[in-house]
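Student: Hello, beginner here. Can you help me understand the protein record under this note? Any guidance would be welcome.
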Amino acid sequence: EARGAARMWCKAMASSVSSQAFFVKGRSSSPSSSTSSSPSSSTSSSVSRTRTRTRTRRTMRRRALEPKLDYTSAFAPSTVANLGPGFDLLGCAVEGRGDTVAAKPMEVSASSTNLEDRVLIERIEGDLGRLTLESKSNCAGIAAIETLRLMERECGPLAKGAGVSLDLEKGLPLGSGLGSSAASAAAAAMATNVLFGSPLPKAKLVEAGIVSEAAVSGYHADNIAPAVLGGFILVKSTEPLVLQQLDCPSDLWFVVVTPVFEAPTKKMRAVLPKEVSMQLHIENTGACGELLLGIVQGDIQSIGHGLNSDTIIEPTRAPLIPGFSAVKGAAIDAGALGCTISGAGPTAVAVVGSKEDGRAVLSAMKEAFKSEGSLEIQYADVVKLCKEGAKTV
């Protein structure tokens, strides 16, 4: 009940900002979608039937979808989910590392009706041999399959024998808390869509990616949505899936430090409390509100303080990441405005006012992981907010 109340409060706060909303799955709840009881309703109904017949005729005349390019590739960035108190509600994309997927046409049997047979993963690099090439069990493969499914549902049938061959280049370590699976899914969905001439709008690709995420770590959009769309994303609803981009008028810098330690999302979600006290709920809701207002107002101090003040998720996960508490303290002492766990961890992320400030914080966080957590560092950088999300490269 506490989490539900927090979610409702955050939605109310975000509804007052003039940012772009995406009704990705399900029906929009906007006033224009409601049924009218005015005298003109019969006329509207007649016009609607005419338009429906017109759309039906157009559908019958539509050509089957087939690849428009011989080759394309897409890149999707790393993401920071939760941002402290915004568990499963907030996420953002950051520059730096990410995953790249190359796509090219592939011929399959003309008699094949199974979409899984239309996607082949030929090669994976950067995963140390840990990921499967089986498309229906791989994040990139699932996202490509679901993108084809969306094309058929929204745009028309696929041409007989039309398939997709993928190459995946992992730039993000597995189980790092930087949205590794989401980056693979976003890049694969983007590459597949572009290969067929981009019949789907970019926002629709989130729907394909979230199916992939659900198969790996659970049904949540706070990684896949920013990986596709970029910037800050508020998940206003998951059923139907309603997303809202939050425009931040300030330049933001993040310090990202990933130790050599794996924290699988499923494992880190399993330790979360099933119930929380009313007091913790109130404090966490206040922190989430401060974070949201900081984002839309461009108040870096509020962003940092809100991100730093999670009272529910971080206290549960922090003891499972060696040295994290010391890392957070070192970041604040070195000038960070706030520090928390990125996603499920083990990556620690801090907000700073400038790249120069970030260098000092970066050094302090790395040293704390080494000295207090006895962990080596596999990735560390000072990066900006990525506003574009998935893109062709």
About this structure: The first helix runs from residue 2 to 14.
